[in-house]
Amino acid sequence: MAGQRVLTDENGRGSIPLKRRGLVPPVRDCQPEDLELKMKCKQMVDALTEDEREHAARSSYKYLWKSVTTMTAEGVASKELTEDREYYAMQMAMRHLSSKKGNIELALPKFQAAIQFRKETDLDGLRLCFHADKLKNLDEETREKYALYREKLSDRMSSGRVYVCGYDKSGRAIYTIYPARTKDFDPEWFLKESLYNFERALACTERESGGVEQSITVIGNYTGFQSKHATPMSISHEFLNSLRQYYPSRVNRVYMLNTPTSFLLFFSLIKPFIGTDTRKKISFLTNDKQRESSFGELISIDQAAPWMITGGQKDRDFDASEYLTKTPFDEAFD
Length: 334
Hints:
- The chain is an alpha/beta fold.
- It has 13 helices and 7 strands.
- A 5-stranded mixed beta sheet has the order 3-4-5-6-7. It has a two-stranded antiparallel ribbon with strand order 1-2.
- Helix 8 (about 185-210) links the parallel strand 4 (about 175) and strand 5.
- About 35% of the residues are buried.
């Protein structure tokens, strides 16, 4: 179909139409060679409490929204929701197990720690706060908390430092960063702003790819970056450690453009906090030839900003109000 982006396998064969918007469920059957890993994942999920299992499943925004809109006030889930909970909890377990090369003794405590992090950071609340009007059975305390989240995120996001804009050719959302637009370095809300958009990118990927992809593409435009825009080491360490410990296999590639000397010095300081596997995914694009070559293969013209690819059509100024209040959480800024 003309103008329709498609998802192809690693060899360029086949075509899976994108923009499915999650209507086509992901394939849930494991191949025979995956049965051992599946059994280990089942062990990991079985080791969780019911509350932990629910929060593990909620790492999927698709499941989170279904859970909060269909579960009864008494917390009773339908048979379908219970089956979905098992499936999405298994997905999260698999990511942690794979990151530990199938070693369940190492993976299980990491899995449980990631669930605890999600609860303590209230990632559910951050993802739901702008759509609280569609939720029933919220108590007054939760409504007040969500109102605070909306106020803080609206203020921080007004600068457009980080947001989700566009998709690569595999349906992965693009987590776009403009460090020179940094508003301030409030320790709590700088982290939560970053996590809000990271979670949003994951939700967009899940919806755009129909659950086929589970990672995102990160692109940073460092035009105008100065030393004053460098994130304090304590905040950088906390964010990077969060990604390393609690989000295994969630970043596909990282591209950094127009990096001045001041940023390269800053990067040399934070590099030790970046996991070895992630370091291998980072590319510095220092000239137009590298940029056009890398992004030409990765992103179609209609999904790229002009500074990514010549002729890129994502050229709208960022509108925080539209992004936060009028656009579904699992949709990128268009």
